[in-house]
Give the backbone structure.
Amino acid sequence: MRSRVGPRHARRPVPTLLRVIYLPRSMDAAAFAMTTYGIPLLVLATTHSTALTGAAFALEWIPRLGAFTVAGALVDRHGTTTVLRLATAGRAVVVLAAALLLPTLPQGRAATVTVMLLAASTGVLTEFSYIAAETAGGVASREAGDRAHRVQAVLLGIDQVATLAGPALAALLLQWAGTAGMLSAIAGFSLLTTALAPRQFHREQATAQPVFQGLRTGWSTLRSLPTLGWLVTGLTVSNLAVGLLQAAAPVIVVNQLGHSTADVGLVWSAAAVTSLVAVAVCRRAIDRWGLWPVGALSATIAACACLAVSLTHTYSVYLALIAVFMAGEGGLTVVLRTLRSHVIPAQVFGATLALTILLLLLPFPVAGVLVAAVPPALLGHVITACAVLQAAGLFTAFAHLRTAPSLRTSFA
């Protein structure tokens, strides 16, 4: 999407946003959700190992982190369209190859290596497509001017709808259609993203620079924006708890609570429903009260729900607490995205966006390692410790942000 607007940012009409931003983002978000939540389930179903499920979660996220060192710079250099199309087409090829290969392999080392490689490769390609789609959303937000938080609310709503349908669809397909059925669906959404990304889905090119220079550029920009820096710091600490709950969900629901893989998907689908409600509420609340009150309340809800998760031993209460927890996280995400779209300079948006997402995702492979290393009986204690750390991190961040003008007032 090539930017052709002046300093005042002429607003794009809704039909153009739907065609250029929202539809490709919807297809990619569906593939993203099915990959993120479906691959660990596939590993558990293939290997029947708690440790390998946690290791696969870590292996899925570690290459994603490496991808961020180059993804933002590539988007700034080549535009969102090129990166999005290549990444989603590559993901479709990888998962289709796995769908054809896995049913022919016997249970054992070959199948284990295949699903582990699938986790790593889809993780890299998914993050390249995510950076491209998110950068396009940032362009649309800047063009929307004082309505930026509304665009971000729609984009977050798309992500939450995908989180609502994606895990449940992946779990149901894995249970009833097998490995090939689930992976074919991921490939289908990936190919739809490739086809729907139009030529104008492209950013204005930035000054050419070495790819790895993007990380340094993003770090310099983030250091010059203390408000964004404190918010990213607090959410990075918080994401250790988020990642731990995601990585441990198959183990807790299937092995400890005795439910099926489909019930794992139901947990995250219910969480997505409450997140959608939270996004809709936050959109109006930011108009009325500003970013800081909405962010502080969302942080309180997320921290309290996470502290309570480790104390439950029934599936219904676990599902409800995860839903409340993700509602708080949804509110925090609206605040982060709105602030990020306003304060990051346009010419370095891709590189800075990539760095902020890199920092936010660093805890996820750590969470996978924790699930792989900790005996299942002790997972509750680890969740409690991470919940305390999350509460402390969010409290510290919002205490520093209390007087920040860009968080105290609304952009509307």
